[in-house]
Prior knowledge:
The protein is of the alpha/beta class. 39% of the residues lie in helices and 14% in strands. The protein has helices at residues 29-37, 62-65, 83-88, 93-101, 104-114, 126-135, 156-163, 165-178, 193-208, 239-246, 275-287, 289-293, 326-333, 359-362, 368-373, 392-406, 412-429, 436-451, 455-459, 462-470, 472-481, 506-510, 536-540; strands at 12-14, 19-21, 48-50, 53-55, 142-147, 183-189, 224-230, 270-274, 303-310, 316-321, 343-348, 355-356, 382-387, 495-497, 516-517, 525-526, 546-548. The strands form six sheets. The chain has a five-stranded mixed beta sheet. A hairpin with a 5-residue loop joins strand 9 (303-310) and strand 10 (316-321). Helix 7 runs parallel beside helix 9 and helix 16 (392-406) runs antiparallel to helix 17 (412-429). The longest helix has 18 residues, at 412-429. It starts with 11 loop residues before the first strand and ends with a strand. The model has no long low-confidence stretch (mean pLDDT 94).
Amino acid sequence: GCIGFCEMGPLLHIQPLDVLYTRVSLEDCQEIFERSLKGNEVVERLLYRAEGGTCRTEDEIPFYRLQTHNVLEFCGKIDAVDLNEYIARGGYAALGKALHDMTPEAVCDEIDRSGLRGRGGAGFPTGKKWKSVLRQKAPKHYVVCNGDEGDPGAFMDCSIMEGAPYRVIEGMTIAAYAARSDEGYIYVRAEYPLAVKRLRTAIDRATEAGLLGDGILGTDFSFKLHINQGAGAFVCGEGSALTSSIEGNRGMPRVKPPRTVEQGLFGKPTVLNNVETYANVPKIVQEGADWFRGIGTEGSPGTKAFALTGNVVNTGLIEVPMGTTLRKIIFDIGGGIRNGKKFKAVQIGGPSGGCLCLDEHLDLPLDFDSLQRIGAMIGSGGLVVMDEDTCMVEVARFFMNFTQRESCGKCVPCREGTKRMLETLEKITGGRGEAEDLAVLEDLGDVITATSLCGLGQTAATPVLSTLHYFRGEYEAHVGEKTCPAHACKALLSYFVTEKCIGCTRCARGCPASCIAGKPKERHVIDPARCVKCGACAAACPVGAIVKR
Length: 549
């Protein structure tokens, strides 16, 4: 399983030496085998290097030391599909406690009292959802796990399913007991084959051990669990679209009410939470609600897993208490911005989230309520860090392109509105923007947000509206001056040879358009009319004499 520090991978954890090797290559394996596995020696050159020297153990590395692992505590630490190893670490103790010492109502009360909120994005109180299903009079209830992680740059749920499948299954089994359900589904993206394989193995072994199926742990409680693979539609992360897909229909959201807790899968009351939410449940039941409330903030207890990607030194999977600031995540855990560049913004919550960029945003606590107050959301937990060379108009275009392609097309505001917004953004980044285009984007964004059928459409315009709010100057430069301040939009670029040119002719020889003229040892000139803006000349110049402008 993934142990998080993707930037330094491949990682190799040696036990019982408790040594973590980084960036291991195939050529290192023989030396590791001879010295570490046979001779109990440490291969120093493979250790992580920090300012204070080398770090032998995982806990010595700042990336790990500043985190709090609850959901990720087993990922990479145990054999993911070894049931005995999971039980030896305390696994299934919570299920035993729930079945033998608690009623379904008591389990719902404990989860409600813990303050656990859904980790899939909306942050709805988990206990209240379970109680709503428990109260329904229908004879059949379902439990569904949303493992359809579709946000660009997000891989939290994938890592949990791969590294701790029993933790997810135990959480779902407890939820089934609490909601009086005897059947459940895990909806997983087909693009996660290893997660699917390990979940299937874990389900089979748990069933053989009497931890799934009929008469679990000697009680009259039964629960059968199935896996359903999604075809990669982003809209199937929405609850009603997801259940529609499981039923064999096209994944499209429906009008609400009724809610999923009343009429969900196959028209029956359904508990629907995401992978990380279920993975929190066993420890809450075992340790108690007060333990969970001791982590995080009053309104958002517990921890949150984030996928930290983009222009940050230490990319990877992290887990921190709710309320941790962006500054701590990006500059302490993440090691700051790559190549000494300046921080510009962070996209939080994927296509449904906004961009945080102001200095005060860096010290904003990352929890549901704090982000909601400034018009952003945690979403599933993707954090894409951007530096000073990032064009925010292009970022907005990228996310709108994703959302427009993923729209199911059921409602007009999302189907047509996102297409119009994308066309307008492409017009602006293509150098054809007009002043009125900014007003068009704002008007369309407001309409789509207010009138779309489901959460995908209602948040589709957020990346555009947030970048328009915080980076309006960049939009105005694209439209009014026909320039890209970040020098990222190809249509608005031009290359210029400065006085630093030594006339080596490398740029001319490497130009695919043959648009560079000049004699040896003399300053060269680029013909802008013929330049295809590929950047080959700048890459070939040995003295950095060719610049973008």
